[in-house]
Specification:
The protein is 42% helix and 26% strand. The protein is an alpha+beta fold and 379 residues long. It folds into three domains: 108 residues, OB fold (Dihydrolipoamide Acetyltransferase, E2P); 157 residues, no CATH class; 75 residues, no CATH class. The strands form two sheets. Strands 1, 8, 9, 10, 11, 12 and 13 form a seven-stranded antiparallel β-sheet that branches. Strand 11 and strand 12 form a beta hairpin. This is DUF932 domain-containing protein.
């Protein structure tokens, strides 16, 4: 039976030091190649790519084909690029592996396109990993460079911040930043709420901190993004203001076939943009007036009473396509929070997000908090 690997063990709620160590370890194993379809084959559930491995012999260095086990993200990319339904491809991987090879090879034989394949060379797992199959116009902005440039931007803006937590998955990196001294008070929004984790009452501690989240994908799963984020001190629930997010899409010029190498000048230009955007985000989002403006906008909807919590949570869950486990968790957190208003639905969404072990699911759920509140108020 073939298996789909993760490129790494997912990291949830890591420290900045732990995240940096993970990224440094990966940095030395990365190999990005633009390969014509004719140089890629599927064999035993792996991608075999010509010219990606090197051997030292008495006659010199020779190149040969390298073998890479695709991650779930890469497999989705293979399906999209070759026009194979991803559900079918994942089904045959586990139930009839020989059909996985046959389908991938069959469609590779029917195209003359080239693809960018992002890989990790063999490490402790003993085999290479194919992280993503992307278009040749994909612009590489790596997590380690993003992190370094973004922190430079924070420092240049001159605001004291702390790293709240960091997540790293095969899809994205997330870094959450808080400025404790930039705060506002939300007694109206928090007067009836209590933390489902500690039981502490929002009325006793109605402080809201300013912050933002930096996210990036190395594997085609999202743009480099800076999103403002408000954090409630009483429960550490985070609320992202997605409408104000700054995005920088990974699109560039077409790469030629072969191993991808960017010039230092090109990388520097990209990172200068990241540093500048981060500094701008600090100056824009880490202001007391910005926090107060967002809270005022939220409070106008949050106070709407919820007369039938179970029906409202079900309606919101259907509209936002939450699964049954998430719906049940939202209902439980809503009841535990004790705030029977649309704002209570917001708190339930953001508190459940904290409990999810999957970083991408947690991020996506938290981003739905304000929309869930609006739907609950309209239900």
């Amino acid at each position: 039976m073939t298996v789909t690997l993760a490129a790494r063990t997912p990291s949830r709620n890591a420290s900045l030091g732990e995240l940096a160590a993970l990224l440094q370890d990966e940095h030395h194993r990365k190999l990005d190649v633009v390969a014509p379809a004719s140089t890629i084959r599927a064999e035993d559930g792996r991608l075999i790519i010509q010219g990606t491995a090197h051997e030292l012999s008495p006659t010199g260095v020779t190149t040969r084909a390298g073998a890479f086990r695709p991650t779930g993200v890469c497999e989705a990319g293979i399906a999209e690029k070759l026009g194979i339904p991803v559900g079918y491809l994942r089904k045959v991987r586990t139930e009839a592996p020989e059909l996985w090879d046959a389908n991938v090879n069959g469609w590779l034989d029917r195209t003359d396109r080239s693809f960018m394949v992002r890989t990790l060379l063999p490490g402790d797992q003993g085999e290479g990993v194919a992280r993503a199959m992307l278009s040749t116009g994909y612009r590489i902005i790596d997590n380690l460079d993003i992190l370094t440039a973004a922190l430079d931007g924070v420092r240049s803006a001159g605001v004291d911040v702390r790293i709240d937590s960091c997540d790293l998955s095969d899809k994205r990196m997330y870094v959450r930043i808080i400025a404790d001294q930039v705060r506002a008070y939300a007694p109206k929004l928090l007067r009836n709420y209590r933390s489902p984790f500690t039981g502490d009452r929002g009325a006793d501690n109605p402080v809201v901190f300013a912050g933002f989240e930096i996210s990036n994908s190395e594997t085609g799963c999202g743009a480099f993004t800076i999103t403002p984020r408000l954090v409630f001190k009483v429960c550490n629930n985070g609320m992202t203001i997605t409408r104000d997010a700054e995005r920088n899409v990974h699109l560039g010029g077409r790469h030629d076939d072969g191993v991808v190498k960017w010039s230092n000048e090109t990388v520097e230009r990209v990172l200068q943009v990241v540093t500048s955007k981060t500094a701008d985000a600090v100056r824009t989002f880490l202001r007391e007036s910005y926090v107060q403006e967002q809270l005022h906008r939220i409070e106008s909807t949050a106070g709407t009473p919820i007369t039938n919590p179970e029906e409202t949570i079900t309606t919101v869950s259907k509209a936002l396509r939450f699964n049954e486990d998430t719906r049940a968790a939202l209902f439980n957190h809503f009841i535990a929070g004790g705030d029977v208003t649309a704002g209570g639905v917001l708190h339930a969404v953001t508190s459940v997000a904290q409990t999810l072990p999957d970083a991408d699911e947690a991020h996506d759920l938290e981003a739905q908090g304000l929309r869930a509140m609006e739907l609950a108020a309209a239900a």
